[in-house]
Amino acid sequence: MKKSLLSVLLLTSVTALAACGGDSEATGDEKSVKLGGTAGPYSDMLNEAIKPGLEEKGYEVEIVEFSDYIQPNNALDNGDIDANLFQHTIYLENFEEENDMDLSALIMVPTAPMGIYSNVYDSIEEVEDGSTIAIPNDPVNAARTFLVLQDHNLITLDPDAPELTVSENDIQDNPKNLVFQPIEAGGLPRAVESADLSAVPGNFALAAEMNLLDALALEDMPDEYRNVVAVSAENEDSALAEDLIEIVESPEFEETIDSDFKGFGKPEWMENR
Predict the structure, then answer these.
(1) Which end of the chain is more exposed for a tag (fewer CB within 10 A), N or C?
(2) Is the pLDDT of residue 12 over 90?
(3) pTM of the entire structure?
């Protein structure tokens, strides 16, 4: 009888411990998240400006770095990561459509702007007639370049052309007779050495250890070109999504941007609050 009672007590204790361990593991799984970003400024932003806020809320956070612009959305779509930060709204929407995915942008974040860089000129006003300028060979970033050049009176674009899709064909006036040299965006930092001017998207400039504030001109980008924190559509209303939005909207997040991400352009919602 004593042996039987002891066995029951031991079994009850083991079962209780196992149940406690299972609850703890489940809680840990619920609070363990993986965030993905491309190597460089946006994985840095995840690590420095977002991860600390999530950890304060009790999350265990792993940052996954990607080396291209394809895998972060594939990983998000198949559930390998819970959120990502690397792309602007236009890219996200196009990627969704082309790959039959359902992803959602939660909130825009400060983004490294495109800049016009030069080893020949010290200011945009010094640009001479016939200067060469290396520009991105993809339509989205090329359009951004032409808008920057127009903002600084180097070209005039057709006012009827859609702003986000303007091309060289939409240039109505080129008073400096700029010569455009389209190349792959990743090569634009090196093109500063070979061309008079080079239009370098912010992420590529930072990856090449260029200082954004060294640009002759920085883009006043439309919000559609600012990067977003994205999740799968089914998690758009999740607790994690709410927490991510709250962290990005926090004063602590903006303080980190101001101190560690100088030159990043802030989205309209952050500028106007």
Answers:
(1) N
(2) no
(3) 0.79
